[in-house]
Amino acid sequence: MRRLQQRIRDLEAELTRLQAQNDELAASTRDEAFNRLQDREPALT
């Protein structure tokens, strides 16, 4: 029973770490996309 409880704690910690890493990657991707949009030249009118 203790092994299972420890395994659950380990998996929860891993989940938290992966969610934080995913949030960082998503923010980085948004920033890069925003920068690319700003670097575009204006459309001709």
UniProtKB/TrEMBL annotation:
User: Keywords, A to Z?
Assistant: Coiled coil
| Taxonomic superkingdom | Bacteria
Name the coiled-coil region(s). Answer: 1-28
How is this protein named in the record?
Answer: Prefoldin subunit 5
Organism, as annotated = Streptosporangium album
